[in-house]
Structures are given as structure tokens and as C-alpha cells.
């Protein structure tokens, strides 16, 4: 019987509307299906009812109003008393096609009729009026937020839904999942990093603020607390690693900035979703520390090393090739014979860019690099090294043999102090040192366009910021003196 009443109400809404369009007809079809087909089906097959509820609203009347796009232009909020105990309620009242809809909000007070009249007129005064008006203001804010969002004042059920989401305990995994799904225009590699950061934030949330509502979460304080927790957590991991005589990277200001920046994005995603105030904090990106610009003498010293294993031979050959190109180590490790073409005076390697999934071709003219590639092609196999972790571990070992305790002064920027530090070459060397080495020399020798194509940077800002700094003094001297660059 209820189903037929719902259908009648739907038809009444349709008939009372001045403009019956396709959307209205869809509503009619929707509920004919719901009442006649699905209701009878779920009656005979009750085990499928949860799945039907996923398709159709649990409140059929609300669904009719939503699909019919009824615009509610006015509402009233008035204090009343209800029940035998005459308890105080705040009543939200709207009409839809002359049908009254209400929501009664308990205020946990008992007042006389005269007191309620004075309260509605704003003349009651005292603590009772103060508390009651706080409740009214809270719901007025929710109503106005939903009006801005939907261009219509809300149905009573929509107020309940919004209140449950923003005021009650937050389901953090669900919100993070929604945030990650919203990152359509973000590169795969960047999205992966965002995932790591959000996993860290979930750990912070679960151990510190799991009782927060959505409104409580979207605050500046959340960012500050997360930053403090993140630094403390990473420092604890570093100390634990040292106690176990394992190496663990010291947290840098840039790492902290990146984590806080992504969490701020997440909080503002939630703010926009529920029409809350955005977290308006200006984050200042820290300056980068000065990187080690490995010299030609350092590279030659490394290449004098006598390899003891095939893996070490691979490392040295990769350096010989990459010191003239500047590839990402992940790219060079994925070189396959079918992507290489040899010509009389140059060799081509075709790449799919690691970060952009876009094709580019690198031209190699260095004879030593071409010979290594040719020899590997004859063997029909390139590298035994499977990932850059192995490469970095081996290059540090080789550097330890070749450089010993040699140090280099590096300008470091951190949250405690900034200045030059003496760091061991074998500790700070990595695969990226040779990418930087090649990029700087290609910029100096051929210009930024060639260096950008060889290294695979699509963004001019990245290569100019990180690789096109002041020239290495030896390169500058050779260029000014007109010497031939190797």
C-alpha cells in the first residue's frame, strides 16, 4: 500500500509541475520499475534486497524529490515543545508541492509555552536562550551550506546526511580513497607518492585523532600536528636503524614540505566536498641543498676500478654510457635490443618516458658508449642489474674502494642550521650523480634543448631549476678559453 502511495505522490509532483520534461518522465518510469518490478522481486527473493538498496534510495520520497529537481526556496526554524514532557525541539519546516516536511531537533530542555514564545522572539535572555540559539545557529549554517551547494534548501533527510558526515566520527579510509580517485590529472609516479603520503597520514589519524569529525579534521591544527608527528616518527625510525647498525636517511625539510603539502590538498578536498572553510595555510617550499657536482676526474677515477663480478662490470658500463646522455637509471636498466638501431656514425635508442608515457629517441655518438652497446647487442642481453637499489649499492661500494675517506663540501639546508658540511663521496654518490653530470655538460656543450631531449625532461622549469645552475668552473674555463670539451 505504501508503494502505491509513493507512486501517487510521484505522479502528483509530476502533474503539479508546469514543465513536464524527459527528466520528469524518467522519474515516473523509475518508480514504476521500483514499485512493480523490484518490490515484487525482493519480496520473493529477500536475499537480493541489499543490492537493490544500492540502486534505489532507502527513502523513496526523498529520491522522488531529488530526481524531480524540486527547488525549495524558503524554510522556517522555530522552537516548539513536543510530547508529554513538553521537551524543547527546534523544528525545520519546508514544503514541497504543498506537502509539509519537517525535522525536529532535540534541545534537551523543558520550557513553558510562554518561555518558548519569548525564545522565538529573542526576548527570553539568559543561558537558556544562549544555548538554544547556539543550536539554531549550528543548523542554520548547515542549511545555508546545502543551499549554496544545491541551489535549494535541503530536505530534512539531507540535513541528517550532512550532519552524520561532518559531525560524527570520520571514516578516514573512505575519504582518502575518494581523494585518490579524484587525482585524474596527476602522473602515475606522482600519484604513487601521494599514496605513500596518505598511508602515513592514515597512521597518524588512527593513532592520534581517530575520534575527529570531518569539521574537526579540516583545520590548520591538523597540519601542524601531522608535521610534528611525521618528523618525530621518521627520527625514531632513523635512531632505531642506527641501533641495528643499519643506514636510514635523515629526513629533509623538502620531504616534510611534500608530505604536509599533500595532506593540505587532502583536507581542502574534503572542505570543498562538504562546503567547509578551506585550510588557508601558506606553505613555503624550502630551498634545495646544493648537490654534489661530480667532476670529470671523479668519474675517471671510478672507471679505473677493476670489476670483480659481472654486476660490477654492468655498473661501470652503465656509467660509461650514461655520462654522455643523462638517462634516468630506471630507463637505462630497461633498454632492450629491439629498441636499438645502429648506423655507421651513431646509435639510436628509443624510449618510452618513465614519467610521461611518451616516446622519445636518444642519439649516441660517443664511440666508447656505442661499442659497449654493440657488444651487448651481440650477446643479446643487456644488464644483470634489475633495479636502481642494486646499482646504488654497488656504486657506493666501488666509490668506497676508489675514494676511500675523501670528502667534499656540500651546502646543506635544514630546519636546524644551514651551512657547508664535509661529506664522504662514497656516502653521497648515487645513480643520479651521473644524470646530473651529463645534463650539465650537454647544456654547456649543445644547449638546453639537446640536454632536455637526451635526459627526457618535458618541463623547461625542471631542467633550468635543477641542472642549469652556474656552470662547473672547469666547463666555464674551457668554454671561455675555447678548449674542446670531451
CATH top level label of the largest domain: Mainly Alpha
Across the major sheet, the strand order is 1-2-3
Q: Which consecutive residue ranges, at least 5 long each, have pLDDT under 50?
A: 1-11, 13-28, 37-68
CATH topology of the largest domain: hpI Integrase, Chain A
Q: Report the average pLDDT across residues.
A: 79
Whole-number tally of structural domains: 4
Q: Architecture of the largest domain in CATH?
A: Orthogonal Bundle
Overall geometric form: elongated
Order of H and E elements: HHHHEEEHHHHHHHHHHHEEEHHEEHHHHH
Structural class: mainly alpha
The Rg value, from CA coordinates, equals 34 Å
Number of strands: 8
CATH superfamily of the largest domain: Intergrase catalytic core
Largest sheet: 3 strands, antiparallel
Overall helicity:
55-70%
Describe the fold and architecture.
- This protein has 486 residues and is mainly α.
- The chain folds into four domains: 2-67, no CATH class; 76-167, no CATH class; 172-273; 296-481, hpI Integrase, Chain A, CATH 1.10.443.
- 57% of the residues lie in helices and 12% in strands.
- It has helices spanning 2-16, 22-44, 49-55, 60-67, 113-121, 126-150, 156-167, 172-181, 188-208, 214-217, 220-243, 253-273, 296-303, 310-322, 329-332, 367-379, 388-403, 425-428, 431-446, 448-455, 460-466, 473-481; strands at residues 76-82, 87-96, 99-110, 340-342, 347-352, 359-364, 407-413, 418-424.
- The chain has a three-stranded antiparallel beta sheet with strand order 1-2-3.
- Helix 11 (220-243) packs antiparallel against helix 12.
- The protein is elongated and about 100 Å long.
- The protein starts with a helix and ends in a 5-residue tail after the last helix.
